[in-house]
Amino acid sequence: MDRKSNVSRTTYETDIQIEMNLDGKGKYNISTGVNFFNHMLEAFSKHSMIDLVIDAKGDIEIDDHHTIEDVGILLGEAFRQAIGDKRGIKRMADATVPMDESVAKVAIDISGRSYCNMEFDFTNEKIGDMTSEIVVHFFESFASSAKLNIYGVSKGANDHHQAEAVFKAFAKSLKEAIKIEHDEIPSTKGVL
After folding, report:
1. Neighbour count for residue 123 (Cβ, 10 Å)
2. Measured between alpha carbons, how far is 127 from 37 in angstroms, rounded to an integer?
3. What are the backbone angles phi and psi of residue 145, rounded to the nearest 5°?
4. What is the pLDDT of residues 102-147, one digit of tens each?
5. Helix pair 159-177, 134-146: axis angle to 10 deg
6. Are 74 and 66 in contact, with CB atoms under 8 Å apart?
7. How close are the terminal C-alpha atoms of the chain, in Å?
8. Boundaries of every domain in the chain
9. Pairing of the two strands 102-109 and 92-99
């Protein structure tokens, strides 16, 4: 089974290309114009073992919202394309990741339904050059286009550590949820 995708999206605000290999080695080449977001996506790729190439150009002279939102949308589309009919996947998984004084927990269900519930404890407006409130919206955008459920929570005193723990927990839980365990659709409905 070839679980790869190559997708693109061009709007008046962004121009994005993404290549994804769900059965990769955690190799990445990521350029979004938002350095902290690059760092988070690199951590996601490394800890999920999903190979990612992301080339995103957006109107970051305005702010980071459109770029990060559209990367989330397209990353979800790339995932949905790569995962296929979901035959044999574990489907549900969770991970808890500590990072110094912070800790994050993320649970995922690749259900074919979109839902995102994130609770973060950020105290600053920015984390590096990324707006902290956009982190929730990134996950909402991903969940919506990937057609999966994400629940995440983080606590801590340092926003950088919290955000990084969340992205790593997201990576670890997704890595587990996409594992092939058998050859059936993991649903009593017969479809996901």
Report:
1. 11
2. 9
3. -85, -25
4. 999 999 999 999 999 999 989 999 999 999 999 999 999 999 999 9
5. 10
6. no
7. 18
8. 4-177
9. antiparallel
Query: Looking at the domain 4-177, which fold is it?
Result: Ribosomal Protein S5; domain 2 (3.30.230)
Both tokens of 15, joined, read 């121009």
Residue at token pair 């296929």: 84
Q: Which two tokens stand for residue 54?
A: 């992301």
Token representation of residue 138: 């990134």
CB-based contacts of 62: which residues, under 8 Å, 6+ apart?
none
Region 174-188 average pLDDT? 95
DSSP 8-state secondary structure symbol assigned to residue 133: T
The total of other beta-carbon atoms located within 10 Å of residue 167's CB is 28
Q: Quick one: how far is CA 4 from the chain centroid?
A: 16
